[in-house]
Amino acid sequence: MNATPSPGRPRSQQARQAVLEAADDLLVELGYAAMTMKNIAERAGVGRPTVYRWWSSKAEILIEACAEDAVEDLVVENDGPCHDPLAELLSYLKLLNRFLATEPPGLAYRALIGEAQHDPRVAELVREADLLAPPSIAVLERVRGHAAGMPETGLARAQLTGPLLAHVMTTGTPASDHALQRHAEILLTGWQ
Predict the structure, then answer these.
(1) Whole-structure pTM value
(2) Which domain CATH number covers 41?
């Protein structure tokens, strides 16, 4: 999600990238609650007015910081029709597991999910950005031809990503490969 810039000087790509990286770094170092627009600006080497011209909150910065990474990090490489739906699901689950449990953008996403539980504006940002949608929908559409009982896409996405997101959010650790394998097998069996 790109913030709409206010009138004034054009956005500097270098300054933008510095702010996004500063937000990622500070999230890891300080946590979401301790991050401020001021310390993001200071870490990025830009003025606070520059940051506020582009984003109105640290949540908006984090959404933008993790949006591009989520799309890149969660793409299951394929080169043709789906021949092994279990492998497709498992590949995506492994990518999602790593993203949520170990990658800075995944940490940002988890922080935003947590904040969204009590901040309606953050909840709206997370809902609008829907960072996990494009890659999960792509995998589900590839698998759908092998899973006649798969529910509509929204519910299928929840069945695919929900248990893993809940695991990582509650434990802070990645799921085991065995757990991912079982989850994919159970889903596919139920959908077939």
Answers:
(1) 0.83
(2) 1.10.10.60
